[in-house]
Amino acid sequence: MDIFDEMLNKTPKEKFIEIIKNGNLGALEKTFDNFFAEHIAMIELLERQKIDDRDIKKFIFENNEFIKERQNDIFIGLSAEILGYEG
């Protein structure tokens, strides 16, 4: 099995973890700085709308499959962003 076959047989999360393990430190730093800034902004906006941790946890519980799909989208997006900074 060559490297391309191996990559195709991995989940987005597995590929993302590999990219983190082997990624350029500068690319990782930029990507995670942006990701965490967005996360913090979303938390602040939710709190201003009176949405708290319990509401978020309830939503995750009630929409588990949707959350898993979106996690894959995030893993793919972050992987592309990291690789884009490296290129």
What attributes characterize this protein structure?
5 helices; 87 residues; mainly alpha
Secondary-structure element sequence? HHHHH
Which blocks of ≥5 consecutive residues have pLDDT under 50?
none
Mean pLDDT metric: 91
Radius of gyration, whole Å: 16 Å
Terminal residue distance: 26 Å
DSSP strand count: 0
Globular, elongated, flat, extended or rod-shaped: what is the shape? flat
The largest β sheet comes out as: none
Number of helices: 5
Structural class: mainly alpha
Strand content: under 5%
Helix content: over 70%
What does this protein structure show overall?
- The chain has 87 residues and is mainly α.
- The chain is 85% helix and 0% strand.
- It has helices at 3-8, 12-22, 25-48, 53-62, 64-86.
- Helix 2 runs parallel beside helix 5 and helix 3 (25-48) packs antiparallel against helix 5.
- The longest helix is centred in the middle third of the chain and has 24 residues, at 25-48.
- The model has no long low-confidence stretch (mean pLDDT 91).
At a glance:
The chain is an all-alpha fold.
Task: Describe the protein's topology.
Blueprint: H1 3-8, H2 12-22, H3 25-48, H4 53-62, H5 64-86
Helix pairs in contact: 2-5, 3-5
